[in-house]
C-alpha cells in the first residue's frame, strides 16, 4: 500500500468540487468542499486564496469554454456574435454559477485577458473609448439572461386554465421548438444592428 | 395568556421567509422555513402546494412589483420599454431568485395574467402570432441579465496589474457612473428598434 497517486487536494479538484456544489445547490462553502474531498477545511484554505479565490477559480473554469479566438473573425460584428454564442453556451452548461459570478468582481487574469481582447477589437474598429464597456456589458446582459433561459424547462408556461389567458395560450401554441435560440438570435441581431448604427454615427 | 394574534403560519409569512432565505443563500428548503418560523416541516406543507408551490409564491411576490399598467402606454414600444424597466427593477431587488424562478415553469395565475397582457398588446399591434413569444422572451433575456448586473459590484473588474490588460484599463477609466443603466438602455433601444423593423416588414 503506497500513497495514493493523485494528491487529495489541489486547485483543480477544489474547483471541480465547488462547481459540482454550485450546479447542485446554487452555492458552495469551504467546509462542504473539504467534506467531499475528505479533507480538513484548513487544508483547503492552504491551496486557495480564501473563498473569493475559489469564486475566481470557478470563473476561470467556466470561461475556459468560451472561444476567444472569435475576436479574430471579421467583420467585427461577426466576431462579437461568435463570442456571444460561445459565451452563452459556456454559461448555459452551469447556469447556477451566473448569480454567484456576477455578484463579485472579475479578478482572474485569464478572464481579464478575454475582456482585453474584446476591448481591443472594439477600439480597433473605431468605437469611442467611453462606449466600449457599455457595448460589452449590454451584450453580456443579453448573453447571461439567455444562458439562464437555455437552462429553463422547454415548456416554460403551464396553463392550468387556458380560458383565463386565451391570448397567451394561442401565442404559446404558435411557438416552434428552440424558442430560447430564436429569442436569443433575435435579441443579438437587434443589439448588433443598434451598436453598428452608433458606430456609423460616431465615424467622421 | 391568549393565543398569539398573528397566526404562526400563513402563506404570506412562508413566502417572506422563503424570500429571505433565497436572498441570503440563493436557495431555500422547506425544513429551513419551518425552523425560522418555529414550526414543524409538516405544518408548512399544510399551507402550500409543496416546494413547487412555494416557488410560485416567490414568483408572485417578486412580480407583484412589476407595473403591468405599462401595457396601457402608447406607442407599443414605449409600453414594452416601461414594462422592461419595471421588470428589471423588481428582479434587481432580489437577484438570487432569478436562477430559481427561470428553472421552473410559470404557474402562478397572477403572473400568467401579466404575460396575457403582454401578448395581447403585441397582437393588437399587429405582430404575427408566431413572433409574439420570441419577442417577449428576448426582452426578458435582456431584463434578467441586466437585473443581475444591477446587483453586481460597481467596480466589476479589478486589475491587479494594469499593464497586463492596458486597453481594458483605459476602457474602464472612461466608464461613467451608472454603467449598468447605460448598458441596459443601449441594449433595450437596440432590441426595440430591431423588433420595430420586424413589425414593419410583416405589415402588408
Automatic annotation (TrEMBL), chains A, B:
Gene3D superfamilies, per the entry: Tetracycline Repressor, domain 2
Membrane spanning stretches: none
Residues covered by the HTH tetR-type domain: 8-66
Key word Nucleotide-binding present: no
DNA-binding region: 29-48
Keywords: DNA-binding, Transcription, Transcription regulation
Keyword Ribonucleoprotein: no
Protein name: TetR/AcrR family transcriptional regulator
Record organism: Streptomyces litmocidini
